[in-house]
Amino acid sequence: MRKLLYICFLCLLTVAAYADETILVGNVHDAATGEPMANVNVYFRGTKVGTTTSEEGFFFLRVDLKAKMRLVISAVGYKRQQYEIEPGQSAGLELFLEEKTNELETVIALPGSNPALPLMAGVRAHRRENARLAEIDLPSENTYFISDIQPRHLKRRLWRNLQDGMIRQADSSYLLPLPKEAYLQYALPLPEHFNLYESTVPLHEASFLSPLAASANTFYNFWLLDSTVVRFNEKEEKHYRVRFVPKNSFNPTLSGTLEIDSATYALREVQAQVAREVNVNYLTDLRYKASYGPDSRLREENLTTLMEIAVKTDTSHLFPSLLASRRSVAPEGLHPDTVLALDSATTVYVRERQPEAIALPDDSLVAAITDSLMELPLFRVARWAAISLYTGYIPTGTPVDIGRATDIFGLNRVEQVHLGLPFRTNERFCRYFSIGGSVGYGIRDRGVKYRLELQGILPAERRHLIGVSLSDRYADQDVSAFGALKVEDGIELDNRRFTDRLFGGIPNRTASFVPLARKREVRFFSENDWCASDGIRPQVETQLSVQLGHQGFGNPVLYHYYDMPSYRYASIRGILRLGWGERSADFFMRRRRLYSQYPTVFIGAEMGSYQLEEMPSYRMYGLLNLLIRQDVHMGLGGRLTYLVEAGLVLGRVPYPLLSIMNGNSGYTYSDERFTLMNSYQYAADRYVFAHLHWDGKGILFNQIPGVRYARLHELVEMKVAYGGLSDKHRSVIDYTEFFGADRMQPLRVPYVEMGVGLGNIFRVCDVYSIWRLTNRQDLSAARWGVRFRFRIGL
Fold first, then answer.
1. How many other CB atoms are there within 10 angstroms of residue 602's CB atom?
2. Phi, psi of 656 (to 5 degrees)
3. Residue 31, number of CB atoms within 10 A of its CB
4. Cβ(41)–Cβ(33) under 8 Å?
5. What is the pLDDT of residues 343-384, one digit of tens each?
């Protein structure tokens, strides 16, 4: 190596003899190991003239010096070397750098002395204008893999035939491409915008506190690492690099580095990741990288998440993991920028910044492997489980699925045991049309129930669904069409009803009556998307339906299914839905709402007529309803959900058309029901409901050593109801004959109940302790109770 250096130097010296130039050739080694050192900074102090060593440790400088200059050779973690260079002098240098044994000096930190804190304060002060500049929609591509596949997995029969489709990685593990169906997009949720300019960064049900949030100094430590000078089109910018680390890694926080423009306080580069200890279920790892141009606009974004298929309580890795990756690049592409890094206000090196790409296979390879794997046992099992969980329908591998699961089995006081056979055609039968229904039988009442539903989706750019249904079965009298909007996610509502039906045969003290009645109905309906949200204008959706049928009334325990009294009705109902910045996923004929950080508004109206057997003609009525709900992600403060509903009933109506306060007749907890209220205890024709629920996401438990490994959540909830009830409705149906004088009462005093709970027990269960704060004079109702629910989430 030394001989080669001398030969190069002599050749260059011969050339330099004919020109007044300084030529320097050198080779840099590690003094301890003798290995060549790459990316070592070689520069003339006080100038922007410099270079870096190659992978073999070589450097070459050719410059016209006017005076004596000092050549500096430096690398992070090594002692700096300096040499005096005369004008016209040429030299060949073989250098050996020694590691610094005392890299950091003792620093006494005084209040306000951290230089990173005022810099971060400036970033927060200019956050709004820089965030507006950074907003840009980049074309993105999502890729999904089964990752962390160990050799022992391949010994199992389920995995054995996957080896041909696996991609071998450098770490001797495997990656298995997954198809990009909608159900995988939900099973592996990727945030639409991982924007650190926002106070919180959402990841489906989890929310991470941004280091740019106003309260970030309380939860993060900040250090100023370095400063750089960046040249864009002959214009220089000075950048600062700041490292941020959470003070408690169990909190939903991030760690990484920020590159900040000193003039505009805008972000130029972001690197962030999530700690493995963070109190979020199933998320093993998350890494994010983004770069911004000189105009502060987003130029490239890379996000990868690693999620567990099952909760891993040890390091045995019995199950692989799920890897989701998203890469977004500006349409014009990235242009290399000349970067001049500074070290203590001194030029260090000159280099070309190149974007780093994710080491994933190309699209053609992924597509080819995906096509060959779709029929393998693992994929069939995974697809079956995902569709069953997220749609409520069980695939059979034929054009007909089994579902909905809530119609298969149930326990209640009316039927004792409900057995059903539900079905629905899927995409194999027809992509734009579906036939569904169910046939059920009650053991106690010996009644046959059925439902038949035809649905179709128009092949248009926006979603337009039309359908008709015919049914004869039990329906909840205390859940109106507008009340069902409290839990708009029909899949989530089905899961809760399934839990209620499973444990509905164990009545508690509040179960004085069963809110079920026979309902025979023909219904025509449509769901339409009209306008997508652009951030200012809302996404506009409408639901329109026409109902004709018979509605039963009375206590179903006292009647045979076919002998229950009923009235005839006909109505038309319309619901206007306004949403902002929503994310949803369509599963054939069903839509699931995934995430929105803004309120959702429902405006509903219904107009119809009814007739009892003894009435000579139909009588008109009207219903008006307004509902607002929102999930507020509060970063380290957890998640706050609120719901406000108000309504009005016009005319005299039978009691099933009133707003009957939803009582809870079981030991399960439901968001849409009042936990300690008896069934049919209160009703109203003008009403206001409010529900507030806070999930602390471990903000307190994360501070307790040992306990924080259980990933428990703090839960607080409050429900309020108030309304008036006119006696004129008793002239239609005297409900006191069925329920007694102490039921169907107006709320002269607002009803309030409050509870605290322990959430995320074993990742699947919540337990609440709830107290009734008002209307405690009713001795027939519980004043305190314990309830539970099953819930799986991040």
1. 21
2. -65, -20
3. 13
4. no
5. 222 222 222 223 333 344 444 544 544 554 555 555 566 566
Q: What is the CA radius of gyration of the chain?
A: 34
CA 405 to chain centre: 25
Strands (E), 375-515: 393-394, 400-403, 409-412, 416-425, 433-442, 448-457, 464-476
Whole-Å CA distances, 454 to 143, 470, 525: 35, 9, 10
Which residue shows structure tokens 């450098």?
Answer: 170
Cα 468 to chain center, whole Å?
34
How many angstroms separate the CA atoms of 463 and 467, rounded?
13
Of 205, 183, 789, residue with least CA distance to 498? 789
Neighbours of 401 (CB within 10 A): 26
Angle between helices 127-134 and 116-125 in degrees, nearest 10: 70
What Cα–Cα distance (Å) separates residue 93 from each residue in 13, 20, 239? Answer: 13, 20, 32
pLDDT at 163 over 60: no
Position 436 scores a pLDDT of 93
Which residue from 697, 684, 578 is spatially nearest to 629, judged by alpha carbons?
578
CB 377 within 8 A of CB 156: no
Residue with tokens 């909840």: 476
Element (H, E) at 380: helix 377-391
b (16+ CB within 10 A) / e for 762-786: eeeebebebbbeebeeeeebbeebe
Strand bridging mode 659-660 / 683-684: antiparallel
| Residues β-bridged to residue 323 | 145, 306
The SS3 of residue 686 is strand
How many CA atoms lie less than 13 Å away from 160 in the CB half-sphere?
4
Among the residue ranges 16-25, 131-140, 337-346, 734-743, the one predicted with the least confidence is: 337-346
What's the pLDDT at 144? 63
Which two tokens mark 350? 């000159």
Q: What are 490-549's pLDDT values in tens digits? A: 555 555 555 665 555 555 555 556 778 899 999 999 999 998 776 678 889 999 999 999
DSSP string, 297-340: -EEEEEEEEEEESS--SSS---S-EEEEEEEEE-TT----EEEE
Q: Phi and psi (nearest 5°) for 336?
A: -60, 140
Calculate ∠ Cα 405-409-412, nearest 5°: 125
Quote the CA–CA distance of 152 and 155 in Å, as a whole number: 5
DSSP string, 515-584: -EEEEEEEEEEEEEEEE---SSSPEEEEEEEEEEEEEE-S-GGGS-GGG--EEEEEEEEEEEEEESS-EE
What's the angle, vertex CA 561, arms to CA 558 and CA 564, rounded to 5? 65
- Give yes or no for residue 35 having a pLDDT over 90: no
Angle at 687 between CA 681 and CA 690, to 5 degrees: 90
Rounded CA-CA distance 668/714 in Å is 18
Q: Using 50, 70 and 90 to split pLDDT, how confident is the model at 386?
A: low
Please state the pTM of the whole predicted model. 0.72
